[in-house]
Amino acid sequence: MLLSAFAYGFNHIHFGLAIFVSKFLIGIIYFLVFFIFKNFYCVVLIHVLSNIIVFGLSFLQIKGKLCF
């Protein structure tokens, strides 16, 4: 579990240490979702929804609608 979470986090290391740590923790959450539901597609769905939220927030930030 920790190795796969580390690999997922390390894949994002070029964004900085804080992103690495957050992705490492998210990797652990993804593993737990897979462990509980025994379904790869649940993890894929959560990952896709997470990306949609991140892209949406990034778009709003670029447009000046968000202050962070």
From TrEMBL:
Keywords: Hydrolase, Membrane, Plasmid, Protease, Transmembrane, Transmembrane helix. GO terms for molecular function: peptidase activity. GO terms for biological process: proteolysis. The chain crosses the membrane at residues 12-33, 40-62. This is Caax amino protease family protein. The lineage of its organism: Bacteria, Pseudomonadati, Spirochaetota, Spirochaetia, Spirochaetales.
